[in-house]
Amino acid sequence: MADNVNPDGSERYERVMVVSAHPDDPEFGFGGTIAKLAAAGSVIEYVICTDGCQGGEDPTVPDAELRAVREGEQRAAAEILGVRQVTFLGFRDGSLMPTLELRRAITREIRRFRPDLVLTHSPLRSINGAIGASHPDHLAAGEATLCAVYPDARNPRAFRELLAEGLEAHRVREVWVGSVDGADHFVDIGPYVERKIEAIRCHVSQFQKPGWEPDAPARWVRERMRKVGERAGLEYAEAFKRISTA
Length: 246
Ligand SMILES: [Zn+2]
Prior knowledge:
Layout: H1 2-5, E1 15-20, H2 25-39, E2 43-50, H3 63-81, E3 85-91, H4 100-113, E4 117-120, H5 136-152, H6 161-164, E5 174-178, E6 185-188, H7 193-200, H8 216-230, E7 237-244
Parallel strand pairs: 1-2, 1-4, 2-3, 4-5
Antiparallel strand pairs: 5-7, 6-7
Helix pairs in contact: 2-3, 2-7, 3-7, 4-5, 7-8
């Protein structure tokens, strides 16, 4: 399956970093692609920017309690997809902005792990897709990640304090942002749809909403991935916009 993952037919992606706003974003957005990359031999790490403490509709649950639950759910989901490590940056859920502080935190992770490929959110609001895809935290995480890839991580003069931590400049080869509007890269996730659903099911706290039936996540994923696949002549697909960093 590695040939489909790498559209150029060039060397495969040895290290892949997924940067998302919330726990559960990697699975919903890129779960099939992550499973496929892992099966092709990539080492994959997650960086989750926020603590997930707004991911619920019961205001009486203490933040610390929800944060712990969601971290556990995220680690379980990552394990199912073959992800090596999950790093939580701990920014407050619902308040994420593409600040220098966030850029520095993501740059630190990029320089530590030195990925070839970074997957993240689009920094642009889509007015065609569902409004939830353009959550302000997603836009902020996408923008900060692109800033971290270029110029921060590759420029040794940016965030010079990171050099003192032994974190040398690193050039990421490619970025794929999840895309509704401008997709130019469709990953065939046919063999990995069930794995994606299994990983999404780990986020139990996110499905305790009135009106959710037990099979709702699976149905949603299959319908959504089938729709994306139609655009590329595939049964099930995830869509990205590829950004070259050359
Ligand atoms: Zn999210």
